[in-house]
From TrEMBL:
UniProt record similarity statement: Belongs to the transglycosylase Slt family.
Residues making up the signal peptide according to the UniProt record: 1-26
Organismal lineage: Bacteria, Pseudomonadati, Bacteroidota, Sphingobacteriia, Sphingobacteriales
This protein's name: Transglycosylase SLT domain-containing protein
Keywords: Signal
Protein species of origin: Mucilaginibacter mallensis
Signal recorded as keyword: yes
Top-rank taxon: Bacteria
Residue span(s) of domain Transglycosylase SLT: 111-207
Amino acid sequence: MIKKHLITCSVIFVLVVISRFTFSNAAVSKPAPATVTNHVNSRYIFTKNTAENDLNFADEAIPVNDKRVDRKMKTTLQKHGFSCIQSNVLQRKAEKLFPIIVPILKAYGIPEDFKYIPLVESGLCNGISPKGAAGLWQFMPGTARTYGLKVGHGVDERLNIKRSTVAACKYIKELYGEFNSWTLAAAAYNNGEIKLQKQIRKQNEDNYFRMHLNRETGVYVYNLIAMKEIINRPAKYGYKEPYTGMPAPHLLAYN
């Protein structure tokens, strides 16, 4: 019995040693967990905000090594240069009106670059377009009413600088919530969110600079960036009078 018991114990001991060796070896040879890497499409390298190259809208940079983007940006900048415009009227209007617009943008958490929309939309004029859009922010009557402006019965708050800017901020903030991109929010401001969403689904692309849009919307953000450039670096584009950013006291009384 004792001999039989010793044999049994020996067998158990050998099995325990083998199992420990196997477990230890498996632990050593077990592959390390796979590291998840976000691969960036190497075709598009985006700009960094540097003194030499800071072309961007609301800190959302444009691709710098895409020939189509580069060509459109250069063409747009040339189109807005003094050699083509032959006038400093936009700079003078910006100097008067930006001090009214910018604080409202900041109060609503909207990037300051959106102050260039009135330059592109209306040339900082309060006129009415052939389609019926009016004011600095070129609101259509229905959209204006949706965002709290009174239009009709002898009243048109689209022509009121402060109130129309507040309405624009509400609309832009809503667009950003839908697209999660300030650049796309700007494009949607021009083209409408429904049309832009349709193109995003159709093209399976949500980077404005890689999308193919209608002529007006396709250059809209480029125009905003160009306006930003010529206001901030007028001498570079042939303009002589720099935008000072100082308020015009007589204009601060706008309601």
